[in-house]
Design goal:
The complex is a heterodimer of chains A (231) and B (334). Chain A has 231 residues and is α/β, with parallel strands linked by helices. In chain A, 35% of the residues lie in helices and 22% in strands. Chain B is mainly α and 334 residues long. Classes of the chains: A alpha/beta (231), B mainly alpha (334).
Amino acid sequence: MSAHISIHELVLPRISGPLVPLTLDIPPGAMIAVVGRNGCGKSTLLSVLAGLLSPVGGSVAYDGQRADRMSIAERAAHLAWVQSTPPRGSALTVEAVLELASHFGSSKNAEQNVIEQTIEDFGLSQYAYTPLNRLSDGWAQRAMIARAFAQNTPTVLLDEPTAFLDLPAKLVVFKAFAKAQENGRSIVLSSHDFDALDRLAHVQATLQFTSSEIACAASFNVAGVEAGLLG
Amino acid sequence: MKGRSRTGRLWPWLGLVAFGVLGLWCSVRWGTVEMDAESFRAGLWSKGGAESKIVWGLRIPRSVMGFGAGAALGVAGLLMQTLFRNPLAGPSVLGITSGASLGVAWATLGAGALGAGAGLWGAEVGGAALGSFAVLGILMALMAKFNSRSGLLVFGLMLGYLAGALVTVMQAQATAGALRAFVFWGMGSFADAGLGAALVTIALAAVAIATTWRFRRSLDVWTLGSSQAQSMGVDPRKTSRMLVIGSGILAAWTTAWCGPVAFLGLATPHGVRALMRSSRHGDIALACGLGGGALAVWADWLAHLAGLPLNAVLSIVGAPVVIAVILSKISRNV
């Protein structure tokens, strides 16, 4: 369960100002942090990575398969994503959400096992049978992050995953991320929570949005970063 | 990990079935014409005779239609509440009932205004079917172009105003007899359909229940929001289209035969969720059908015995349910 993500000459839509094409190869087991100010395009980049939004130019591919050309089912087998705000109003219990995620995900054989492991990894056991609409925002967000991991996809994209989380919750979630990385899963997350990222996360590369480009600092070999950096 | 048992709760099912069977029995056994056990038995088992005409010609078709319409509306209400992720949605929010009412107004009042014989048998059914399926057609065309649930809501709401306005125009020019026919249609009734239409209604409800059960997991996921659903591999466009078509057909068909039956579609899913202690579609789809059918039969029987309009009884029972839902939401601070 691992994927090679290749971003090639990517130009994002909806971004004001010129943007230099981004080229990046993400090896399995990497964590990429997308950082930058409000409105700079972090969520847009994640939407493009998820194939929900077509880029103006270039492409994103998972193991050679282009994200924006996958069917919804194919995409759900390659990647899971989590929005910045947890859903309100669903009466599904946390356990039901995880069961559904593992049912629709790529781990059909080991459903019960995956559910139990995910509940443990994300410290959700005390709320396993609580409906989402009875949870606080922080716990609902934690449940939705767990949902993405229960789907057992090689790649997980998270938009501001720590927005509603307190410090103990961040500790739990980043520990679960690290475990997933060890299993070869890649994580791309956006955040302006530099402090938590710096201290808690095993970040291999940072994509920093500046006024006209995405600057990349990485501990692995990044093709074409110079172009991205220097414009 | 200790789980809450999801199966093994048999009594709610037994209760639902008993409630439905008892309602059906009562509404076939006791009506406005009194029958002793002897003549009831004769009416049930022998062909010909006044008793047989009452039991087979009136009571059984009305009871079966009530059950079928209630089942269809219960499921349609569930599908609407799922589509809009809103506990107060019901089968009428799409504007299908408004379309039907316009169709009936045109068939009864319009014809009356033109001097033709209003209140012909079948005029209401034909007009309602025309109106409701026309709206369903427009909805499907809209869905193909736009995929917006708020757009659908606005469409349903505006269509209601538009239909209401056109209906008042026709009412202003209609004869007293035609007005009476139109008003009676609006009260809702299971009495006019006949056994054939009643059985088709039950079949439609059964297909809807089976389809809901087949897609139960996708519909569960849908409650998390379109984006989450898509992330888990559930197609939002397909799902919303399926929900609109499914509940639209159920609502259009029942409204054509029974008029705008109030509150059943809205209230049934709430009662069933509370009874089954679950919101998962796999647990409640069939129960919504059984519960809606049973409620409809009981309401129809009581209304019939008391000489009240069906919708009056349904609203008197249904409105407190809606108030209770809102109050429990407020107290939960959601």
